[in-house]
Amino acid sequence: MISSSEHFGNDRIGASTRQSSGIGTVTNRYFMPKFLLLAAMVLAGQCAFSQASEDPFLWPDSQKVAVSLCYDDALDSQLDFALPALEKYQLKATFYLVSSSPSLSNRMEDWKAVAQKGHELGNHSVYHPCRASLPGRDWVPPHQDLDAYSMMQIKEEIRTANTFLQALDGQSERTFNPPCGDRMIEGEDYIEEISDQFVAVKGHETPEGFALLHVPFDISGDSLISLIQQAPEGVGLINLVFHGVGGDYLTTSAEAHEELLRFLSKNEDLYYVDTYLNIMRYRNLNMEER
Question: CA of 241: how far to CAs of 16, 131, 142, 146, 290, in Å?
Fold first, then answer.
């Protein structure tokens, strides 16, 4: 276990996914005249055909799947290894910054340059609060315990982080990635209270089953690529949330990370790779038109 003094939190440890599937059924427990039953069956068949024939959601160059590359916590290894690899393969990503990160204060100009290169600086809070009461959270210090926060406290912290980020990159629109994936304060979902400040919130895409979220670390390049290739049919967005790349914690090796980027670059006709902000702007706009 890495001590809390070494980082801002373990976030969603492990390669987690969110996915769902379902088949509509018609159930009738009561007597129904035969002609009504037939009518119901025909109607159900028409609905099923309509759903099956509906055009799938397509990304800007007719790709069926978007890939969002994200990097949490504002770590030095992301500047030293992840960013140069992204530039090499001309891929855009989102860096979710914790405003109190030592890397931010020590390398402010380097982080400004990240935005100038066309990458997104996303909101990951000021202090990276996580719920200490959950299993395996003994690393969460008292001042970063989300269980001790009030709703007003988290709203002010998220707003403060937005203000800091705007001073850093001059942008007024951005996205949010909840630290540790936690969302409950005082028995209420704080995401609902802050979502109007953002174009989108990572891991809260709709409808259910449209997006997957993985938090990979200590994983080979082949395994990273498999997360993309083996996504279930119907998934339109794959979120990959990295932490350390070639160093720091929850680390993916620089070699495995570059192998993934090389694969995505070679398969741009299959996968749309962009900042999470641009991905969700496009998604939101086109869903309104459908």
Answer: 10, 19, 25, 21, 29
Give per-residue pLDDT as tens, 112-129.
999 999 999 999 999 999
Instruction: Give the model confidence (pLDDT) of 48-79 as tens digits.
Output: 333 433 567 899 999 999 999 999 999 999 99
pTM for the structure as a whole:
0.83
C-alpha–C-alpha distance, residues 93 and 273, integer Å: 8
